[in-house]
Specification:
Elements: H1 5-14, H2 19-38, H3 40-44, H4 47-51, E1 56-65, E2 71-82, E3 88-94, H5 100-116, E4 122-128, H6 137-151, E5 160-163, H7 170-184, H8 204-222, E6 231-235, H9 239-250, E7 254-259, E8 263-266, H10 273-282, H11 290-293, E9 298-301, E10 313-316, H12 325-333, E11 338-340, H13 349-358, E12 361-363, H14 365-368, H15 371-385, H16 391-415, H17 422-440
Parallel strand pairs: 3-4, 3-5, 6-7, 6-10, 10-11, 11-12
Antiparallel strand pairs: 1-2, 2-4, 7-8, 8-9
Helix pairs in contact: 1-2, 2-5, 2-17, 5-17, 6-7, 8-9, 8-15, 8-16, 12-13, 15-16, 16-17
The chain binds NADPH dihydro-nicotinamide-adenine-dinucleotide phosphate and (2Z)-2-iminopentanedioic acid.
(2Z)-2-iminopentanedioic acid binds next to strand 3 and helix 15.
């Protein structure tokens, strides 16, 4: 890297001790070096220096009272990263591992992902180190109400529109929306992932997982393959994982393993998704319960070794850095031919290098998992129109968006002499539109 090395070095220096953020900016800036060569006017206008710095970072105290009447304190975040092409848009993550560096890595990735959807949404992300696991509904509600009592002043349907991510699903969005509406006295589309009766979009729940499979389906076909008859591993058993497993199965694959942070299940007959939904969505229990319903399935404690199961296609849908170099090598040695990232940054930089060097199909998160946020943008459109589309209408738009993202990322990779490199293609295709917009709008942030 020549032109952008200083941008990277300065950014790392200004943001010490944020390894996930460093990982995300390093990958993107490395991909963008040939773009910087081609566009000296963007270098001159400081586009690269500006894009790595969030427009605004909000951190706040969230105090709430637990069921034992004890006061608890968490930290809330909203990083409003880039608004060049639309209002800040991106999820909220509630997980004990959340810190500013993680929210920044997610917010930064979100800029390019949102641009790739072709819809007018900027990039942002937020969340808290609050852990919903083991909390009562009443505790989750009190936390969400306290969180929104600060967040509401920073967001709005044309300013910043949060949604779900790890630990934030329909229940949390409901409590957050109720509190926003109460404070603002305004019924607007300020959050997405809302319930269907109160402004949510059909197919939003399914969208990230379905979108991942639509993307992979298109990419596999372009490489003379398909999901038909393939053995698939899906890590995680949350929102993204569940609907990725469902769509992969509908497209003819057999999903043989899923996981949570405690361990993984292997079912050689193919995972029973009704059982997964019952355990995870309804009962909020651990995945090991699956073997009570299917005694011939195998549960293994610890989630890491899921990648040692032989497969044709791996769909990591849990969290960042869940596939390291060692897991990548094992996957390849066992004959894995394609990796589609449902989670954000699930492969380490070393793992990506190994996958790419092997020549298998590698679909990076910001392209492959963009279906969730794309459908969030469709929810915003429906809210603005005060209208709702049918499941089939939304699903058809989602499918077309994912096909377009694949084609645009492929085209960009080819245009820069890197045919098949979807990491580079996605980073470049996502960046160019944002860069053009920032350039046109002058030095306004
Ligand atoms: P959920 O909270 O619904 O599910 C998360 C799943 O991942 C759970 O099975 C969870 O297990 C597991 N998991 C979480 N953290 C870890 C960890 N540190 N180690 C192992 N397993 C872990 O979240 P989502 O399905 O919404 O999100 C999954 C991924 O997809 C995230 O990377 C998210 O950023 C990304 N994503 C989500 C989108 C969405 O629309 N929801 C859109 C695009 C990307 P456990 O229950 O044990 O914690
Ligand atoms: O990472 C992501 O794209 C999401 N969590 C979804 C964000 C959204 O606004 O729907």
């Amino acid at each position: 890297m020549k032109i952008l090395q200083k941008v990277l070095d300065d950014c790392k220096k200004r943001n010490p001790n944020e390894p996930e953020f460093h990982q995300a900016i390093t990958e993107v800036l490395e991909s963008l070096e040939p773009v910087a060569e081609k566009h000296p006017e963007w270098v001159e206008a400081g586009i690269f220096d500006r894009i790595v710095e969030p427009e605004r970072q909000i951190m706040f105290r969230v105090a709430w009272v637990d069921d034992n009447n004890k006061v608890q304190v968490n930290r809330g975040y909203r990083v409003q990263y880039n608004s060049a092409i639309g209002p800040y848009k991106g999820g909220l993550r509630f997980h004990p591992s959340v810190n500013l560096g993680i929210i920044k890595f997610l917010g930064f990735e979100q800029i390019f992902k949102n641009s790739l959807t072709g819809l007018p949404i900027g990039g942002g992300k937020g969340g808290s180190d609050f852990d919903p696991k083991g909390k009562s509904d009443a505790e989750v509600m009190r936390f969400c109400q306290s969180f929104m009592t600060e967040l509401y002043r920073h967001i709005g349907e044309n300013t910043d529109v949060p949604a779900g991510d790890i630990g934030v699903g329909a229940r949390e969005i409901g409590y957050l929306y109720g509190q926003y509406k109460r404070i603002r006295h305004d019924f607007t589309g300020v959050l997405t992932g809302k319930g269907i009766p109160w402004g949510g979009s059909l197919a939003r729940k399914e969208a990230t997982g379905f979108g991942l499979c639509y993307f992979m389906d298109e990419a596999l076909r372009d490489n003379g393959s398909s999901f038909e008859g393939k053995t698939v591993l899906v890590s995680g058993s949350g929102n993204v994982a569940t609907y990725a497993a469902q769509k992969a199965t509908e497209l003819g694959a057999k999903v043989v393993a899923m996981s949570d942070s405690n361990g993984y299940i292997y079912d050689k007959n193919g995972i029973d998704l009704a059982a997964i939904k019952q355990i995870k969505e309804v009962e909020r229990k651990r995945i090991k319960e699956y073997i009570n319903i299917h005694p011939d399935a195998v549960y293994t404690e610890g989630c890491r070794n899921i990648w040692t199961i032989p497969c044709d296609i791996a769909l990591p849908c849990a969290t960042q850095n869940e596939i390291d170099a060692e897991s990548a090598k094992i996957l390849l040695a066992n004959g894995c031919k394609a990796v589609g990232e449902g989670a954000n940054m699930p492969s380490t930089a070393e793992a990506i290098e190994i996958f790419q060097a092997s020549g298998i199909l590698f679909a990076p998160a910001k392209a492959a998992n963009a279906g969730g946020v794309a459908t969030s943008a469709l929810e915003m459109s429906q809210n603005s129109m005060r209208y709702s589309w049918t499941f089939e209408e939304v699903d058809a738009k989602l499918k077309q968006i994912m096909v377009n993202i694949y084609r645009n990322a492929s085209k960009a990779a080819e245009a820069y002499g890197q045919k098949g490199n979807l990491v580079m293609g996605a980073n470049i295709a996502g960046f160019e539109k944002v860069a053009q917009s920032m350039y046109a709008q002058g030095v306004a942030y």
